[in-house]
Structure formats: structure tokens, C-alpha cells
# Entry
Amino acid sequence: EMPLDDAEQEMRSWIEARPDSAARELAEAVRSGALPMMALHALTFAGPEAEHEVRAMLDIPELRPQAQLWLVGNGFDDSASLSP
# Structure
């Protein structure tokens, strides 16, 4: 319920406190269904490990569209990779 800039700063702080596990923990939150879109957005700040975690979500039918959009939106795939 906080402004986006403040929420993103909180995400960054949380990630910085967990340099070795943040991407994995956020990916688990996405897969668990507890605020999946917020966790997916937070992965944007989780560094290079996030790409691997999001690519693994491509194998989950319910998460595939969001994972594809995340990969394109963060420059890891071209928009041509999106299904029609």
C-alpha cells in the first residue's frame, strides 16, 4: 500500500540483504501464488540470477505468459519470442 518508489526501494533493500538467495526466494514466492506479480516485479532487481529463475517458470503453464513478458521486458528475449 506504499508508493511504487518506496516499495521498490524496500524490494532492493530486501534483495541486498540476501545476495545469495534473493532470486531463488522470490522465484519460490512467484510459484507459491502468494503475491506472484509483486515477487515477479521484485526479480527485476535481483541481478543476473533472476533470468535463470524466470526461465524455469516457462515450464509452468500458469506462469509462462508472465515469465515471457518479464524476459522480454527486461531485455533477455526479443518480443518475437512471445506467442501470438
Notes: The chain has five helices and no strands. The first helix runs from residue 4 to 16. The CA atoms of residues 28 and 39 lie 9 Å apart. The chain has a mean pLDDT of 93.
